[in-house]
Each structure stands twice: as structure tokens, then as C-alpha cells.
Amino acid sequence: MRIYRLSHLTRRIGTPERPVPIALNSSKSLSNRALIVNALCGLPDPAEGLDNLSAAADTRTLLRLLRERPEVYDAGDGGTTFRFLTAYLALQEGCHELTGSARMQERPIGPLVEALRQLGVSIEYLKREGYPPLRICGPAPSGGTERARVRIDARVSSQFISALMLIGPCLPRGLEIALNGPPVSTSYLEMTQAVMRYFGAAAFRRGEKILVEPSPYRPRLLRIEADWSAASYWYSIAALAESAHLLLEGLTDDSWQGDRIAARWAMPFGVQTAFETPDGRPCARLRAAKSDGPDEDLLHFDGNDHPDLAQTFAVLCAACGQKAAFSGLQTLPLKETDRCAALRSELAKVNASFEPSPQDPNTYLVHGFARWDAPVRFATYGDHRMAMAFAPLALLRPIEIENPEVVNKSYPQFWEHLQQAGFIIEEHTE
To answer: Among 75, 122, 301, 342, which is least packed, fewest CB within 10 Å?
Structure first.
């Protein structure tokens, strides 16, 4: 097992005159949506016209599978990759097997499969009912004179709904998606809608329904934005530093990504953001100086639309001794790991707690002031966001991160960028 020991000598990052530039990885969420659109356009290479495509492992896997069209599609541990391919393969001729990692085979796919079956697609579970792997035989029948209609449980994953939205324009008369229950992660549905609109399609939310018009996609050049989820770790770093001056390249205030809210969530911790375009290149300039932390006794964070920020800000609150309540985390147990359980276990190592509220088990409370003497070793559970959420703690005292390679899933340059900001990384194996 590989282990990184992290530390930082000064707790100061950059200066006003010379902020540390960080060339953030581009958004894998946007990259994956754009790749599916291009594949549905029938382009010989689905990466055609996509500038600054993400280097994330999930995106590289999706691109390789769309290019190679193998007999067995192996999505690895990429949730978006698996779910988008499920819908994409439903429109392709012939039968295809779609599988994934051991953890992927524990993550539910039933609501999406049932919706596609409502379209007439033949899908078989190859192992356990409701879970990968799948055998998909397409395409969906094109008969009928009315818009195709499906109904789906909206409370499990927004990726199921996004997958359906993306294929909707390719159905002869479009698609109507009826949502059972309030949808989770609606910011990602809005991102899907924005990508579709950019490529000439039309999708509208009307109450508890999403209507997708039968308007074919039109290939266009697109430069992929930097990843706001990745930026959140730098907001945590800025908040924990004695002083910080960072230039996060590729971020805009009018981003399609809901996780741009990280800039607002970090404000109580003394982090200020100014958006600039030096030489025509967008960036976010972060400035933070040591402060006493938030003035509020209890901070509230709603993770329903921003689940990928929960780990970052839960760890930040513990590091600052800031009491906080996190709601809307119902999808976290279904991610790369059970993220609520993982946070609970790892924060306990530094004398902080992440526990369900006695009044509301769907709300988690952060208590305690993270403190430790000897370097603490944090497990990552095969989850990229666990590694990156805990790494900023090295500004306070040395820590260790197990299996640091997990960051390749979304942000492969993360450790290199930490070194650019003055972090010391020592590697050893056990």
C-alpha cells in the first residue's frame, strides 16, 4: 500500500504580488456529458471539437470505450460513466455487456434500467437484480405517434435522469420524464440541460416532469471549464492557511457547475474570491488571511444539490472547531464508498465527530476541534474525495494519506499542485 506523508512548513501560500497559480483539471462532469453528446451525433471521434477535455480517469475510460466499442464495456468505478453508457447503449444496434468494478456492482442501477425498459429496451441483469453488470439489447423501438414517456424514482441519483435527458433528443418524438419524489442534485440536471442547449437540443422542467424535444444535436466546438469540485479543496486550503493568495485558472462566476457555490460557502472562513480574465483567460483569485473563523455558532450546509462538497466542508469545519449541520446527504452512502460512514470514522481519529442529529437522522452534525500530535493516517476507502478532503489538514500538522492514487479518478494533478503550493510530500509503502 502506498502512503503519502503531508506537511507544510510555513502555512503561508503565495503573496498578493505573486499568487500561486493552479491550473485546475477541467470538469469531468461536463466532459462526460459532452462526450456522450458527440457520440450521439455520430462523430468518428467523440472528442472532436472538445478543447481542454478532462484528464480524469472516469473521462479517459468513457472516451476509450466510445472509441473502441468493445464487446464488454467496463466502466471501472465511474458512476457517471456507467450510467451514461447504460442509456447510450440502449440506442445502439445489437447487444452489449456493461460491467464495472466490485464497488460499482454494489451501486444501484434499477431505476434507470426500469425507465429504459419502459421505452422498450431489452435489459438483463447478469448477476444481482437491480445492480450491474447488464446485458443491453437496443435500440429502443421507434414506433408510435406520441412523445415517449417514462417514470423514474428521482430520489436515488440525478445521473439516472441526466442519462435519460441526454438520449431524449435522439428519440423520434422526444421524451417525457415523470419524476417520482423530489430530485436530488438538481444542479447536475441544470448542467445537463445547459450542455444539451449548447449543442442545439431542448429540455424543459415543468413541475414534476422534464420534457425533451426531438431536436437533434449539432456538433460545436466547446472548451471545457475548470472543475469547481476540484476548486473546493483549494478553498479549504486557503481557509486553513495563515495567509493564502491563489490563482485558480479556468474558473468563471457564470459557470454551468452548481459547485461554484463553494466560493460562497468559504466566505465565513475568511476566503474572498475575485474573478478576473488576465490575458483573456478566466481565473478566480482567492485571498485569505488568518481569522478567528466564522462568527456563527452553527453553520448550515445543504448538500442536496452539492453532495460532492460535503466532505470538503465537513473536514474544514472540524479543523476550525466550527459546529455545523449538513443536510441533503442521502446520496452519499451510494457513492464510491459510504461517505457518511467514512467521514465519521476518519474525523474520529482527530477527536471530531460527524454524527446524525438526534432530532433528524437525515442531518449530520460536526462537533469537536480537530487535534492530533503524531501524524494521523487517513484511509481513503477507494474514494478520491476522501483523499482530497483530508489533505488540507496537513497545513495544521503532518498527516498521512493511504492509497493516494485514488485522486486519479477526478483530479490526477492534485498532489503535484499541492507541491506547487509548498506542501511537502514524502512517499513510502507498506
So the answer is: 122
**What is the pLDDT at residue 280?**
80
Bond preceding residue 139 cis, omega within 30 of 0: yes
Q: Which CATH architecture has domain 28-221?
A: Alpha-beta prism (3.65)
Using the Cα atoms of residue 111, residue 115, residue 116 and residue 117 in order, give the sign of their dihedral: positive
Mean pLDDT along residues 124-135: 97
User: Closest Cα to residue 246, out of 427, 392, 369?
Assistant: 392
Calpha distance 161→165 (Å, rounded): 6
Question: Across the chain, how many H-helices and E-strands are there?
Answer: 12, 23
Query: Which member of 58, 305, 308, 383 is catalytic?
Result: 308
CA atoms within 13 A on the CB side of 361: 0
Asked if 2-25+225-429 and 28-221 have one fold, the answer is: yes
Q: How many Å apart are CA 229 and CA 389, to the nearest integer?
A: 11
Task: Look up residue 216 and give its three cell numbers.
Answer: 437533434
Residue 73, amino acid:
Y
Nearest to 236 by CA among 265, 209, 260: 265
Question: Is 3.65.10.10 the CATH classification of the domain at 2-25+225-429?
Answer: yes
Task: Write out pLDDT tens, residues 148-190.
Answer: 999 999 888 899 999 999 999 999 999 999 999 888 888 999 9
Q: What is the DSSP string of 269-319?
A: GTEEEEEE-GGG--EEEEEEE-----SSSSEEEE-SS-GGGHHHHHHHHHH
Torsion (CA) 170, 176, 182, 186 in degrees, nearest 10: 30
> Measured between alpha carbons, how far is residue 117 from residues 45, 108, 112, 157, 339 in Å?
29, 16, 9, 18, 31
List, edge to edge, every strand of the sheet that includes 94-99: 72-74, 94-99, 134-138, 122-125
Tell me the torsion sign for CA atoms 163, 165, 171, 175.
positive
Q: What residue spans define the domains of the chain?
A: 2-25+225-429, 28-221
